[in-house]
Amino acid sequence: MEFVLDAFIDALKIWPLLVIVYVVFEFMGNQRTTYLKNHRLGPVLGAIGGCIPQCGASVAASSLYAAGSITLGTLLSVFISTSDEAIPLMLTYRDQGAFIILLLVVKIIYAILIGSFVDKVFDVKPKRNTYSLLKCSKACDCHESNIVMSAIRRSLKVVVFLFIMTCLMNVVIWVIGENVLEQWLLRAYKWQPFISAAIGLVPNCVSSILITQLYLEGMISFGAVVAGLCTGAGAGLLVLFKENRPISENLKIVCVLYVLSVVIGVILNCLVILS
């Protein structure tokens, strides 16, 4: 029952944001396949929006990317700057103000640099995702008279999916055991960014809480906590796999996100050692 209740609360928190996103989709109609001419600002806005506590921004970004409304660089910038439940946890510690600011600054700057680099160097444009658009078009055609109800119906499908997947993730984490995850992180200093980034990919708030708690207790490095929280996009990854096609593209995005997170974690650890 505890697993179910936690999953229900997590899904309920995301639902209002999803309704807003889908209302915008349906209101725009065919225009949702276009993108802003000034899309180069996407990574900057994405990085700033992503640093808002919890994973609402990453969920919205996944839906927008699947609909072809934002670029890959913007999506990555949101994912990298998102920290899921880490910030609310840190705020419960009165002496962590300087660390929170440092963490947000590092993640935002890195997110902007990566997002802008991806869009500029690879000349990435928002795509026309026929899979997502087809689903959206069917919803609009059936409920043109009430776009709000149509958006609620579609968002409910996503929320149910998130609820089921979150329940499964809670069970998996319970079976593995948080103690085991802690031991993986504590085994070797030089491997912490790699392990932390892998744990951060788990689309569940437990991962960000665990990584943050271990850092606050002095058990893992600053590079490790940054690496883990850069991959900690939470439910945004689940929505990406549900809404976006092909699946192979989503797997590539996850791999890129992991590598980028490990890189910044290793760099930060090296800087600490050199200093």
Automatic annotation (TrEMBL):
Q: Which keywords label this protein? A: Membrane, Transmembrane, Transmembrane helix
Q: What is this protein called?
A: Arsenic efflux protein
Q: Does the keyword DNA-binding apply?
A: no
Q: Transmembrane segments in this chain: where? A: 12-29, 66-87, 99-118, 158-181, 222-241, 253-274
One Pfam family from the UniProt entry?
ArsP_2
**Superkingdom, taxonomy of origin:** Bacteria
InterPro entries named in the record: ArsP_2 (IPR021552)
Q: Does the keyword Transmembrane helix apply?
A: yes
Q: Which organism is it from?
A: Turicibacter bilis
